[in-house]
Amino acid sequence: MKRRAAALLLAVLLCLPLTACQKQQKLYSATWFDLFDTVAMVQGYAASEADWNAQATAMREDLSRYNELFDIYNHYDGVVNLYDVNAGAATAPVQVDAELYAFLRWCKDTAYPATDGATNIAAGAVLRLWHDARESDSPAPPDADAIAAALAHIDIENLVLDDATQTVYFADPAMTLDVGAVGKGYAVEQIAQAAQARGLTSALLNIGGNVRAIGTKPGKQAWTAGVENPWGDDPAYLQAVELADGDSLVISGDYQRYFEYNGVRYAHLIDLTTGWPARYASSVAVLAHADTGGLADALSTGLFCLPEQTGQALAAQNHYAVLWMHPDQTTTQSPDWPQ
User: Fold this and answer.
1) How far is CA 10 from the centre of its chain?
2) Contact at 8 Å (CB) between 242 and 270?
């Protein structure tokens, strides 16, 4: 009996550090409405409200910095951003900081080939036409001749990046940059990595539909995100997807930003082979793992603007999972998409 009692006491003592010495984490959240022209929501577990507030404040500051760097419509004092690049790079090389330069290099060397050119930050001449049409008091498609003329100025090889001087130059003076297809996704990945480096171990970031998981919930439970129904509200979501540490889920669809003209919907996602809104799918969801997380945003846009056959080949080649949602309310998926 003494030996059994001693063993039981030893077991209790060995368990004490796991219960008394570890703080139980609680779930906290934060929401911001003034960054990247979207709603940004983050939730996560922390040992105290003070710890969470420090993490949330740092994430917001990081997101705000990328919002300024990637903005093509506004200048900010003390910052050389994409507005400044577009304003000056056609006449002389514009020097940018290391963070913006690394992003532009990634867009040209990684995001562009990964999407077979469908996600092209050099396509600002075409995308601006559709942006202005969509924001007009009386939205209507741009003139077909204007679209054809703009398509002549989207060659990404005319985006000249000089690693030695860290400068950006446009070999085609009529070219402009638009990073709407990649900016949020890239920023989300960078701020997630920074938060993890600061010690955040369990969180889910949702920045305008760009969802990224950090760690798991307590008890090793996976984070989950929903694939929104692009055809209506019944049901609101077609599927729940589990996200492992570092996974990203991004969805692009024709129901998010669009205008209607003469009974036809014109979405903001443009097929750069035609200069007109892509009509291959109603929505495309991309689940990318940790090694390709920063690409999920670029991939969802790119695959929405490509025929599914091309997208299936790209998904197989690059090992990410894709769900296509078609206008006839059917779905198809790549082999890696979770059942």
Assistant:
1) 51
2) no
Range of the structural domain that residue 270 is part of: 26-70+181-333
At residue 51, φ and ψ (nearest 5 deg) are: -60, -45
* Residue 294 confidence (pLDDT): 79
Instruction: State the pLDDT at residue 12.
Output: 32
Alpha helix locations (H) across the chain? 2-19, 49-69, 82-88, 98-106, 112-114, 124-135, 144-151, 183-197, 296-304, 308-318
Contacts for 187 with CB less than 8 Å, ≥ 6 apart: 36, 62, 63, 66, 67, 70, 207
**In a shared domain, residues 87 and 62:** no
- CA dist 172 and 156 (Å) reads 10
Q: Would you tell me how many other CB atoms lie within 10 Å of the CB of residue 51? A: 18
Confidence of residue 47 (pLDDT cuts 50, 70, 90): very high
Three-state DSSP at 326 gives: coil
Q: Considering the entire predicted model, what is its pTM?
A: 0.90
Instruction: Determine the 3-state secondary structure of 263 from DSSP.
Output: coil
How many Cα atoms are found within 13 Å in the side-chain-facing hemisphere of 101? 16
Amino acid at residue number 286: V
pLDDT for 307 equals 96
* Domain membership flag for residue 270: yes
Residue 205 has pLDDT above 90, yes or no: yes
Please check whether residue 109 lies inside any domain of the structure.
no
Report how far residue 217's alpha carbon sits from residue 87's, in angstroms, rounded to the nearest whole number: 45
Quickly list DSSP for 276-303: EE--S-SEEEEEE-GGGGGGHHHHHHHH
User: Looking at the structure, do residues 189 and 281 belong to the same domain, yes or no?
Assistant: yes
Residue 119 half-sphere exposure toward CB, CA atoms < 13 A? 29
pLDDT average, residue stretch 217-237: 94
- Which residue from 223, 205, 181 is spatially nearest to 40, judged by alpha carbons? 205
The Cα–Cα gap between 145 and 162 comes to 34
Q: Is the per-residue pLDDT at 137 higher than 90?
A: yes
Instruction: Answer for the pair 288, 315: CB distance below 8 angstroms, yes or no.
Output: no
Tens-digit pLDDT profile for residues 24-43: 899 999 999 999 999 999 99
